[in-house]
Amino acid sequence: MFKKVLIAEDHQSANISVQKTLEDFGISKANYVFYCDDALTWIRNAYKKEEAYDLLITDLFFEEDHHKSKLAGGAQLIKVVKNEQPNLKIIVFSAESRPAAVDTLFKELSIDGYVRKARNDAQALKEAIHAVYKGGKYISPDLRQKIKQQNSYEFSSFDITIISLLAQGMLQKDIPLYLQQHNIKPAGLSSIEKRLNLMKEVLEFSKNEQLVAYCKDMGII
Fold first, then answer.
1. Predicted confidence (pLDDT) per residue in 73-96, tens digit
2. Which of 109, 118, 204, 214 is most buried by a 10 A CB count?
3. How far apart are CA 174 and CA 62, in angstroms?
4. Residue 93 parent element (H or E)
């Protein structure tokens, strides 16, 4: 089992909960910090002393206060840490519930586990620690199916066309005319709205802007 763990969490109650979970595994060397900058300092210092951490458990969102921080949140912390110590295992413990955002953490930041703060999250965290220690990946069950559904969505050429037009700044109400002029069917406003609503529902977005940003990030447009 992991020997040395660092917890980056700014809510004391959550911090205590994570520590209790680690104690259940018999992990005695667990340090905790409330700021990402402090987490990075501890990780770097431990590495220099040849006493590197085995596991980092971090939140994504940290509330701003009087303490000035260079790192704005957990994602930035993970990016720096993975660049400097790629072998360090990382589990994110956060309230973020958007499948696209969680999936990006695995694909772009190479995290090892994601546990959403929710009911039964203590048990999920135990499962994540065990899975990651064994060399596997872990995603909270409630998010696993959503991400699978999201990744299985196939964007049609029609989808890509209307998203591209939105990305170029065209208003949704003006898209039908463009489609008609280029002999693209269906060209009705209701058809466009249905496709956009379907994509947003599957990907769990509420705004067209979020859908456009996601498609840019994923290289779809």
1. 899 999 999 999 999 999 999 988
2. 214
3. 41
4. strand 89-94
Find the Cα–Cα–Cα–Cα dihedral 74, 79, 84, 89, rounded to 10°.
60
How far is it, in rounded angstroms, from Cα 45 to Cα 139? 30
Q: Distance of CA 86 to CAs 80, 138, 149, 205, 212, Å?
A: 10, 18, 29, 32, 31
Contact 53, 43 (CB under 8 A): yes
pLDDT digits (tens, 9 = 90+) for 25-55: 788 778 888 889 999 999 999 999 999 999 9
Whole-angstrom distance, CA of residue 110 vs CA of residue 92: 11
| 200 and 143 Cβ atoms separated by less than 8 Å | no
Token output for 153:
């969505």
The closest alpha carbon to 61, from 116, 142, 127, belongs to 116
Sheet holding 55-58, edge to edge: 29-33, 4-8, 55-58, 89-94, 113-116, 138-139
| The token pair that represents 205 in the structure block | 């977005």
Let me know if 183 is exposed, middle or buried by CB neighbors in 10 A (0-12, 13-18, 19+). exposed
Nearest Cα residue to 19 out of 126, 100, 116, 97: 126
Six-digit token string for 46:
């431990």
CA distance 7 to 55: 9
Best CA proximity match to 196, nearest among 165, 151, 219: 165
